[in-house]
Amino acid sequence: MKVLIVGGGGREHAIAWKVAQSKRVDKIYCAPGNAGIAEYAECVNIGAMEFDKLLAFAKDNSIDLTIIGMDDPLVGGIVDVFEAEGLRVFGPRRNAAILEGSKAFSKDLMKKYNIPSAGYETFTSAEEAMKFLETSKYPTVLKADGLALGKGVLICNTKQEAMDGVKSIMLDKQFGSAGNTLVVEEFMTGREVSVLSFVDGDTIKIMTSAQDHKRAKDGDQGLNTGGMGTFSPSPFYTEEVDAFCNKYVYQASVDAMKSEGRTFKGIIFFGLMLTSEGPKVLEYNARFGDPETQVVLPRMINDIVDVFEACIDGKLADIELEFEDNAAVCVVLASDGYPEHYEKGFEITGFENFKNKEGYYVFHAGSKFDEEGKIVTNGGRVLGVTAKGANLKEARANAYEATKLIHFDNKYMRNDIGKAIDEA
């Protein structure tokens, strides 16, 4: 098989690494890819939103399967474009990707189908939103309706913070058109857990659990980011939680989408909050999480291409997902200053330390080759250093030890990824 992966971050690197292990695959392309993905795939200089060019490339190169890694092209309808031309593509169609593309849509869906979630109100007028916030309970949560690179959520502790948040999202357009509609949501407390799943329109198969760390600084301080690290499995995702979510969340979400005429095939990422009242859905995503993928896929035993094809063909019920009985931790090495202002172009060294080092991985998120062929930093999140271990504490110790093997100027990381493990 020839496979095309669309995207260029750490998630896509992990997908490329996993696809490369399939005995069914001879050639992998990635558009646009990055310096790390180049180890497994031929990188093609086409952007993820250049649908016509991607389609032409897939046709010209007889691509057997295209895998969409990113949210933007999914919400933009790339799957519809490829399917219209008879090409096999993994990911939800445009009318199903709205599950992530509009928080207002997903909140309305959960309300309609009694899927447990936080209370909320939706606004298209900043004036109306501010009026509502005058009498709200605090803390409260503001969410830009559309895609905002994982950063369109503000937790506001005071009325003034909330007013400022409405201004930045709806009036100053901090997240562009994503902020045309605003969701004001009840603040929930509890443990967050990420659960990825494969879906074929009818059947849903849950992967192993994970937990992300969104804030930029230690102790969950600082601004929201795309994710500073993650671990898998979550010790807080118990059999009791699993049973509840299987009954009230997972299949219910798939069936709800089908009932709405929006049959979902691809990945549903469930962001869960384990509250004192039971698990509730924080958010849906319509693709693999980043950096959750970097700890989930290294533990997956299945040939991932078999699973992708089963989703496309409606045969997921025939697949038994298998995961190793171990743990993995990923620590993101970022450029100092992320997610605001940071410098790029610093040489990265130390990759040779990971050659033939079983259970240790470096997934590139923001890297590229410079004119001299050296690998240099090219983003806020630069690398995800992942390590496995017999248990979470061992995996965490291994991951942090491994971060010492990689060097670049301006290197920054959180030092408390997985610290919650100690409290489990």
Automatic annotation (TrEMBL):
Residues 107-313 form the ATP-grasp domain. HAMAP family: GARS. This is Phosphoribosylamine--glycine ligase. The keyword Protease does not apply. The gene is purD. PANTHER family: PHOSPHORIBOSYLAMINE--GLYCINE LIGASE, PHOSPHORIBOSYLAMINE--GLYCINE LIGASE, CHLOROPLASTIC. Pfam families: GARS_A, GARS_C, GARS_N. Belongs to the GARS family. Pathway: Purine metabolism; IMP biosynthesis via de novo pathway; N(1)-(5-phospho-D-ribosyl)glycinamide from 5-phospho-alpha-D-ribose 1-diphosphate: step 2/2. GO terms for molecular function: ATP binding; metal ion binding; phosphoribosylamine-glycine ligase activity. Its cofactor is Mn(2+); Mg(2+). It catalyses: 5-phospho-beta-D-ribosylamine + glycine + ATP = N(1)-(5-phospho-beta-D-ribosyl)glycinamide + ADP + phosphate + H(+). It is an enzyme of class 6 (ligase). Keywords: ATP-binding, Ligase, Manganese, Metal-binding, Nucleotide-binding, Purine biosynthesis. GO terms for biological process: 'de novo' IMP biosynthetic process; purine nucleobase biosynthetic process. The lineage of its organism: Bacteria, Bacillati, Bacillota, Clostridia, Lachnospirales. Gene3D superfamilies: 3.40.50.20, ATP-grasp fold, A domain (3.30.1490.20), ATP-grasp fold, B domain (3.30.470.20), Phosphoribosylglycinamide synthetase, C-terminal domain (3.90.600.10). Its EC number is 6.3.4.13. SUPFAM superfamilies: Glutathione synthetase ATP-binding domain-like (SSF56059), PreATP-grasp domain (SSF52440), Rudiment single hybrid motif (SSF51246). It comes from [Clostridium] fimetarium. It comes from the Bacteria.
